[in-house]
Amino acid sequence: LAEAEPLLKRALEGKEVSLGQNHTETLSSCHVLATWHKKCGRRAECEELLRRAFEGREAQLGLEHPETMSSLDALTQLLLEDAPGTYMVS
Q: Distances from the Cα of 42 to the Cαs of 25, 39, 90, in angstroms?
């Protein structure tokens, strides 16, 4: 698991340089890295990347696109985890 972080960061940085920060492939890498941060208990980093992925995908693809909805779902679940008295639905 520890060797995944540098690879994920390298992929994101490479896509930012070659494709741009708001390219859909770059935003996909944001989402993947956010998922990794969540698994490692890094909530703040996860939220920041999920927000970036969601907002970028919404701007590029529209709210109804499945990739946009995937980022919105992941962000919502993350936020609900901290809400008292909230139950997650699987």
A: 23, 8, 22
Long-range contact pairs involving 21-24 (C-beta distance under 8 Å, separation at least 24): 21/56, 22/56, 22/59, 22/60, 23/60, 24/56, 24/57, 24/60, 24/61, 24/67
pLDDT the model gives residue 2: 76
Residue 20 Ramachandran class (φ > 0 left, ψ -120 to 50 alpha, else beta): left
pLDDT tens for each residue of 32-78: 999 999 999 999 999 999 999 999 999 999 999 999 999 999 999 99
**CA distance linking residue 17 with residue 19, whole number of Å:** 6
Query: Between these two residues, 62 and 85, which has the higher pLDDT value?
Result: 62
In contact, 67 and 28? CB cutoff 8 Å: yes
**For 4-7, which contacts have Cβ atoms below 8 Å and span 24 or more sequence positions?**
4/36, 5/36, 5/40
